[in-house]
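Quick start: what a row looks like.
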Amino acid sequence: MGVDSIHNTAFIESNSYDPWLNLAVEEYLLNSFAGESIVLYLWQNENTVVIGRNQNAWEECRLDNLERDNGKLARRLSGGGAVFHDLGNLNFTFLLPKREYNLHRQLSVIVDAVKEIGIEAHFSGRNDILAEGRKFSGNAFYHGQYASYHHGTILIDVDTGKLSEYLNVSKAKIESKGVKSVVSRVVNLRELKPDLTIEKMKKAMYMGFIEEYGHIDNVLDFERLAELADVTKLFDKYSSKEWLLGRSPEFNFRISNRFPWGGIELLFTSRKGTVVDVAIYSDSMDVDFIEHLRQGLTGVDFSKPSILEALHNLPKCVERDDIIDWLHRTDLN
């Protein structure tokens, strides 16, 4: 057990399959509970594609197919790539004060829960958990001012045929992963444990949370939270076309590339030699870097020296350095 400090803990389980409501409650928990409490939130979405904070919905999702089948598009706060949710998938969110955020501890809950039901698992790469070399859980992260969350999927019995029906996976991403298709990279845990159910997985996660954090002080009422005015306001945001689809940028220069940390597409709008706007689409896990990049490039001269200078002025990180190296080799004319 990893208990090393005294803190309040809470558990909440959604009784809704609506992604917009579930994400609204998630953000409400981040803002209203996670500054002082460690919360485990379990939830499910029905027939939904969830895209990362900075992704282009039109590029990532086959929206016509999703609409035809009465599915929903959702956009989360965290970075990373697009995922498909149905009722064969269980979502989890750990919400906690920034000082308590510890990826290893949070992952231990999932890995230990899966081991408890008889499946060996381990963390791999930037955001995946694997069993027998195949992915059953993708994870993403968001850091607010006082609190953070770490959320992800657990594939129990997902209809993997829908992955290729609703998701556009770029050739560059597939090649970078060294595999032929998105379906070949994933595994449903029920393939490895035929008697596994969503309810058994929920119980294993609940017990794994207690094992790691020592106790659960409060069980929160989802229905009560869902009726709050603050949650309604967040629901309106998550269900809005502006949030889901964003704007269609008018750009006059486009470049894109894929790196080990994710893909990026830069759409520059320049007037009289100055960058007046830059739209950035990315499945990078680091949403803060993407926002810093957007701010740093806006207002500079549209020239390679000025853009490189703006990049050098950003905080040093792997993503920044990779983009600088790439732009040194890229023609901006």
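That is the whole record. The first helix runs from residue 19 to 32. Confidence is low (pLDDT under 50) at residues 174-180.
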